[in-house]
Amino acid sequence: MRLRFSVIISFLFVVGSMLPFGVAALTVSPVRIELTGDPGTVIEDEMNLTNEQEETKTFYSSFGNFEATGETGTPSFVSAEEGLATWIETDSSITLGPKEEKKVSYSIAIPKDADPGGHFAAIFWGTSPSGNEEGGQVSIGAKVGILILLRVSGEIKEEGGILEFGAKDNQKFFSALPVQFVYRFQNGGGDRVKPEGKVTIKNIFGKTLAVLPANKSEGNVLPQSIRKFEMIWEKEKEGTSEQEAANNKEGFLAGLKKEWNNFAFGRYTAILNLEYGTTGEKAQASFKFFIIPWRVLSISFFILAVLVFLFIIGIKRYNKWIIAKAKAE
Length: 329
Hints:
By secondary structure, this protein is of the alpha+beta class. The chain has 3 helices and 22 strands.
């Protein structure tokens, strides 16, 4: 039975991150390594470890497989009883002086009978040796690590597509920017898939107003899983959907200011174009939405009505003045 352990520890892994990752004691890089190998071969590589503290520290290695959990791209780690985590070898421990950086070698021995497709694991480094506690729970302590995404060569099924594309919470009517888009991509194949493409925003006349990257974080969709991707069309960089909701709660004037600063009006079409897989498979989806700045329109109509009223009053007074002047003559 595979033992799962939560990622509620002193680090957060996000598949697709490209920055060095660390806690107070240790920084490891790169965070993600993507490799390809044939069955029966050995892959050798290196990783960087840096002791960020002002004292000498010893760090201990351990391994774990991971798989997708939910649709956020956050990995769920599984104990290393089989699979890629058992193919990896590296130093069991390493001692680093204050602020010392060191390259550490590791190897992956791919079995001859390894299944073609994607295999996923992590190399952890922690301040205490790993071990099993009572009840079969995995003792992990404070750890950081490197994600290993290995593709074993062979006949690999590739299958995927867009399940859903639209605005967040299925909203179709907005009063102003930003508009947050969401699409769900399903990978039914045997290896990870990294969808690449763009979302094109066009107005009712077909003019392109914005082009957004569809996978800015370069996130992977693991086999037999669904991942949700989000992007925002905005004019003000600091604007977010959460801020929009907060502003709407502040009242009419706050909403009016937001509509004025992020003005857009009319019907728009968002077109999602994706390419994925080793053969460059393509997928497309689109949806229409409306932006109606009703507060700005309300104030504009009110001001226009006042101007028309004043104009009519002025015309009447002018006519009375002309008539009175004519009678006086």
